[in-house]
Amino acid sequence: MDHLLTWVIFLPLIGAGIAFLVKDHQTVKVLALVTTIADFLISLPLWMKFDHGTANFQFVEKYSWIPTFNINYHIGVDGISLLLIIMTTFLAPFCVLCSWNAIADRNREFMINIMVMQTAMVGVFAALDMALFYIFWEAMLIPMYLIVGVWGGVNRIYAALKFFIYTLAGSLLLLVAMIYMFFKAGHTFDIPALMNTPFAPEAQFWLFLAMFVAFAIKVPMFPFHTWLPHAHVQAPTAGSVILASVMLKMGAYGFLRFCLPMLTEASLSLTPFILTLSVVAIIYGAYMALAQTDIKKLIAYSSVSHMGFVTIGMFVYNQLGIEGAIMQMVNHGVTTGALFLCVGIIYDRRHTRDLSEYGGLAKTMPMFATCFVIFSMASIGLPGTNGFIGEFMVLLGAFTYDRLTGVLAATGIVLGAVYMLYLVARMIWSECSNPENQKLTDLSLREFTILAPLVVLTFVIGLYPAPFLEVMHVSVEHLINQTAGLAGAPQIALLK
């Protein structure tokens, strides 16, 4: 247990190192599956042994790494990061399984990239040293660039370069902010120490803007979102799942871990600006989704809309809003990742994502149709599914803070129902007029194994979210009190 979190972070990297020495592609696929399943299983004790009653970081490990710059290998989890780590390890085996037959060329190298990517993603959520966080943050760039650029679609080079340039530009601004904070905080990158360091208001403004750009690109917030549809459309299925389910959450996690607790006054003063961008993202993303004929691009724009709820929840500074935002991150990771898996399954059969090519799948692929409808309803936020919990809490928090923001955000739910119901009606329920669709086979055992756990989790969270909310409750309460304290304002003022 002393080094449990280290094992969760680096087990996939160890698997990638072994895979590098193995030449047989089939063996590497099995190794990747075993490694990712093992990583999920050893991450479960983080959940089971987690103490819900404290806001302190747990499973902490701290060792001096680069003494010259006071950089430490410092890791740990709280109620905010724990859920995101578990979600990452839970989804990784499905990324391997969905690529089992879909990646015909250089499958061995693809699996290595998936495992390296997992180490970087878990490391971001576990890092308690800002320099270590930055190393994991940047480490994600190369494997994702390769996943899109090597195994993507026809325009993969353009999509990969756009993703890389956008993310790298934001990361450079983040690096500048980190270096300034290092010197002002007494030569430390320690995240808990930086959370308790007061920065001058004028410095906070510029630090916040630098971090905001880096994190907003990752979310992505409007108008920093333009790389996302291209990356999703061109990426292979596993790449789309990683992007939607985990990478987008890293930007939102950055706001919670750095901007709110460290740059509180700037966060409060720029809240109207951020809420405005979030509302625009919700409505704009929904309208753009309505206009799409490419199924993947439709789901990609829906992510822009859904993540707008996340940023609204975080910046209303109350328990309902922030907990709803975290739940929305987890729920979006499950449902949107599942929708991309469904698109990958149907694409493997028809090799097209054009919505006009489909219809009548309820008759030819009833099991697939059932899963697709469930995930679509969860994406809409149907009560009883996981999508309802996060959006409902965010809206309650938004109405508590500002009624106009709540009303405008609620329009996104209506628009979301429109584009998702249109997608379901066109793909699943319309007449099966295309002869190609009449020949389609239903889910294989491997595909059912991928989708069934996600269906179960969709209903488990939707019907009984209490265990997930209990994990984060004390940590979120501590974040709000910390934000109020550093801002020099009572908590009631933050609740407005």
Describe this structure in words.
It is a single chain. By secondary structure, this protein is mainly alpha-helical. The protein has a domain at 270-463. Helices cover 76% and strands 3% of the residues. The protein contains 23 helices and 2 strands. The protein has helices at residues 4-21, 25-48, 79-98, 107-126, 130-139, 141-151, 156-184, 191-195, 201-218, 227-234, 237-262, 264-269, 271-290, 295-314, 319-350, 361-364, 366-380, 386-401, 403-429, 435-438, 445-463, 466-487, 491-495, and strands spanning 58-66, 71-77. It has a two-stranded antiparallel sheet. A hairpin with a 4-residue loop joins strand 1 and strand 2 (71-77). Helix 3 (79-98) packs antiparallel against helix 11, helix 3 (79-98) packs across helix 22 and helix 18 (386-401) packs parallel to helix 21 (445-463). The radius of gyration is 22 Å and the shape is globular. The two termini are 43 Å apart. The model is unreliable at 486-496 (pLDDT under 50).
Overall radius of gyration? 22 Å
Task: Give me the number of helical elements.
Answer: 23
Query: Which structural category fits the helices and strands?
Result: mainly alpha
Task: Give the biggest beta sheet.
Answer: 2 strands, antiparallel
Low-pLDDT parts are 486-496
Task: Please give the number of β-strands.
Answer: 2
Beta-strand proportion: under 5%
The order of strands across the largest sheet is 1-2
| Distance between the amino and carboxyl termini | 43 Å
Shape: globular
Residue-averaged pLDDT, rounded?
89
In N-to-C order, the SSE pattern is HHEEHHHHHHHHHHHHHHHHHHHHH
Percentage of residues assigned to helices:
over 70%
